[in-house]
Amino acid sequence: YRGRRLLISKWQRLKNWEFWPPSMLYFPLCFYVVYLWFKFKKLTVFTAANPAIPDGGFIGESKKQILDLFKPTGKVALYEFIDAEIPAEDQFEKARRFVKQHALKFPVVIKPDEGQRGKGVKLIDDYSELKNVISASDYNLIIQQYIPGREFGVFYYRYPDEENGRLLSVTTKKLLTLAGDGEHTIEELILEDERAVCLAKKHIEYHQEHLYKIPGKGETIQLVDFGTHARGAVFADGSDLITPELSRQIDAMCRKAGGIYFGRFDIRTPSAESLKNGNELHIIEFNGVTSEDTSIYDSENSFWDAQKKLMKQWHIVFEIGEKNAENGVPCASAGSIIKKIIHYKKK
Q1: 134 with 141: CB under 8 angstroms?
Q2: d(CA 344, CA 337)
Q3: What is the pLDDT of residues 192-202, one digit of tens each?
Q4: 244-257 vs 63-70: helix axis angle to the nearest 10?
């Protein structure tokens, strides 16, 4: 049964473009970027879009440095940088002091300071687990306050010669859950669910310690902890949540940070209403010029709908980069960008 359902899992991922690897998703976009290269006469002009972030946030940017930019807004979830160069015991002690100093309750979040698509992000339930994760890591980390509530992706942009910024999109993120029936194991529930089976191997690996537990009837099993599509969260277009109040609040945050014109916020807030009102917003992350308009993963979008949205955002970032470059903001060289891509691929 497991083997048959895993074959179904492979078929579902082949059939549904939203589960295709990034290389396939972005292949048609590469041709459009070549067109933009000729149109704007400089391939890397987009790296000038966010002067406050190295290369505009192209690849390998430090989450800590970006969160530092937004710290004066008072909207950032509490965080601490853990330097991999210091001994593991000192790293753990620094993390422990952070939890104590801010009177945080577990769980807390720990993640790589440089990371993409939710890779390496973990929800930590106690000091023992925190110590083990730090000991097993050989890269810089961020420990961050866990904010309960709902998570949204909010995509912002502003042209340098315009007074007000705009929201390109809002994405709602639903953490995938299953309902127990008192008869089937967690593994069986994963394999049977039409959505969960698409990423069955990931869910089975994540829940391997209690795969054969039989949840009670009506018991809720949360398969994912974070609003990351690559880890199984369900994304939908939330453009109906864009309001003047939210737009003003996001614009004000970017202006206060300084040198931010384009990118996507990952925000946690109690509800959709609080998001619409621009209230109780907590910035988890901000991603720069290579941000994805994550509303593309709405199941109503076709593959070509997604391509149109991606092309639109890349045209905007080239336009913003060109205007900033005209105002004296330097662009990264093509050589340095290629070196960064190669370095990142080797990691």
Answers
A1: yes
A2: 11
A3: 999 999 999 99
A4: 110
- CB count within 10 Å of CB 151 equals 21
Q: The whole model's pTM is what?
A: 0.93
Tens digits of residue pLDDT in 151-190: 999 999 999 999 999 999 999 999 899 999 999 999 999 9
Rounded-to-integer distance, Cα 140 and Cα 315, Å: 33
The CA distance from 333 to 278, in Å, is: 38
Separation of alpha carbons 276 and 285, rounded Å: 19
d(CA 13, CA 3): 16
Structure tokens at 147: 């904010």
Distance from chain centroid for Cα 303: 20
Widest pairwise Cα distance in the chain: 66
What distances in angstroms separate CA 314 from CA 47, 77, 117, 168, 292, one per listed residue? 11, 29, 19, 12, 10
Secondary structure, 3-state, the chain = CHHHHHHHHHHHHHHCHHHCCHHHHCHHHHHHHHHHHHHHCCCCHHHHCCCCCHHHCCCCCCHHHHHHHHHHHCCECCEEEECCCCCHHHHHHHHHHHHHHCCCCCCEEEEECCCCCCCCCEEECCHHHHHHHHHHCCCCEEEEECCCCEEEEEEEECCCCCCCCEEEEEEEEECCEEECCCCCCHHHHHHHCCCHHHHHHHHHHHCHHHCCCCCCCCCEEECCCCCCHHHCCEEEECHHHCCHHHHHHHHHHHHHHCCCCEEEEEEEECCHHHHHCCCCCEEEEEECCCCCCHHHHCCCCCHHHHHHHHHHHHHHHHHHHHHHHHCCCCCCCHHHHHHHHHHHHHC
Residue 108 in contact with residue 130, Cβ under 8 Å? yes
Q: Are 306 and 90 in contact (CB under 8 A)?
A: no
Residue 347 has pLDDT above 70, yes or no: no
